[in-house]
Amino acid sequence: MTSGGASGAVLKLDEPVSFWGGIGPEGDIIDVHHPQHGAVVTGRILVMRSGRGSSSGTYVLAELLRLGIAPAGIVLTEPDGIIATGALVAAELYDTAMPIVTVSEADYQRIEDGVGMAITMDEDVAILTLAG
Known about the structure:
Blueprint: E1 4-12, H1 19-22, E2 45-47, H2 56-67, E3 73-76, H3 81-94, E4 100-102, H4 105-110, E5 116-122, E6 125-130
Helix pairs in contact: 2-3
């Protein structure tokens, strides 16, 4: 969905998180109803089935990227225009790249929380490499 490269430890969410009201200024999940409340997304490969939230999430993700507290990359099973737009806006305004890729459900199931992962996204080709 968006080009770039990233690596980091996987944070695989049980439920999608909204960037608007779900991620705080320290890069952690502040939604008290989220199963991974308190987990830090900064520098991690955020893995979730889909996005969640309002169009304001575009602005919040762009700001997280500007501040250097965003995930290193995002893996989804469903394309999400709000998340992609946030990354594209940050790339244009702040010259920061964050890859966002979509994978099949079978590939999603292979990704484990906490393992290392590298993502390379170029145009419409994504390469995901799992450590271990």
